[in-house]
Amino acid sequence: MSASAAHACLPLRGDCAAVGSASRTSRRRSRLPQRARSPAVRCARAAEETESAPRVATLRSGGGGADSLVICRVLNGMWQTSGAWGRIDRDAAVDAMLRHADAGLTTFDMADHYGPAEDLYGIFINKVRRERPPELLEEIKGLTKWVPPPVKMTDSYVRENINTSRKRMDVACLDMLQFHWKVNLTAVWNKGCVKSRSSKKRMRTCGAAIFFLREFRNFEAVKIILWWDYSNPGYLDALKHLTDLKEEGKIKTLALTNFDTEHLHIILENKIPIVSNQVQHSVVDMRPQQRMAELCQLTGVKLITYGTVMGGLLSEKFLDTNLSIPFAGPPLNTPSLQKYKRMVDAWGGWSLFQNLLQTMKKVASKHGVAIPTVAVRYILDQSSVAGSMVGVRLGLAEHIKDTNAVFSLNLDEEDLNSITEASKKGRDLMKVIGDCGDEYRA
């Protein structure tokens, strides 16, 4: 990275702050006495000394490029801030982010469409700048995604959207921008729920959620379907503009979300410096270990996984439950639980899933940890996986202890074989669904 690009990665101090002023602020801080480490930070560092598995991974473009990013191997997933899980208390959420960072869980994954996620990160990172030692600030990474609507990917349009994320997150340089190609929109409706023919016509071309909510009298009767359309070469145009922004120092590393193996290969052939691809990966969904992992081994691109604990399905809470009987089991009352229950159905059904949970419970009990800890460790041990996501319900629930237990857990050969055997009893989702991300395509 050039000297100018390096300076551009200094933190912004407000929306209109210049990089030069950020640099001067940094120099002034360097002359101030170093703050004492908080007890939480000292405890996190002490815990690292007893861990047997690496806490961090380094992502590099092309497997050996000059640009790199060090991330915590367990990422704090912020999809839960999107609003579908309930109201977010800003102050409580930021305080929870600080607790995660103090505990050594320093990497946060978000997106431009995860409600206030980027804004929360901006508030959080400023509190870290003011209240935490510079060593912790250096460890914190904010990974965001950009999901553009179906418009022409011009330089000005891409630049405007990336600048919006930079301002919201209050950084001059995004640690990572993960590109998410979700461009086509279709509405499926039941007879009588659309007010007029003109509404139908506009709905086919308009992707605005505000229009959707205003025009339809029966929300339940309408379903919005978004899918990837690789026949539209706009994704390559967008990635080339993002590469330019990276060269300018506005983005440190470029990555992808939910791209399949074929199109990851095409992107790499176009000399786009991709460091990772974020894909769904769990003990139920082992698709990434087929074609995708093979390409990653050849190119050095790493995988960041989500859905690794299946929204909480891979936990003691759902062990020995029967969801076929109404109200007999825990409610599937979040979008992630509903989503991953569908994956269980595609894989083999609830009865077979119970067999898998029982196997994982035996392994968890053997090591004195919880089932989600085993679920994450198993995926982190897979080929080309740099990190796995654990969703955080900021200010509502915390699992910091169980999450950190991942780093001291070593699964032996017997553990790995028993989990693999239980996983393989289900269907091969590559044959059922297709490659990574195909579940979102028409």
TrEMBL record:
InterPro entries: NAD(P)_OxRdtase_dom_sf, NADP_OxRdtase_dom. Pfam families: Aldo_ket_red. CDD domains: AKR_unchar. Residues 25-34 have a biased composition (Basic residues). Residues 75-423 form the NADP-dependent oxidoreductase domain. Residues 25-47 are annotated as: Disordered. Gene3D superfamilies: NADP-dependent oxidoreductase domain. This is Uncharacterized protein LOC109710530 isoform X1. The gene is LOC109710530.
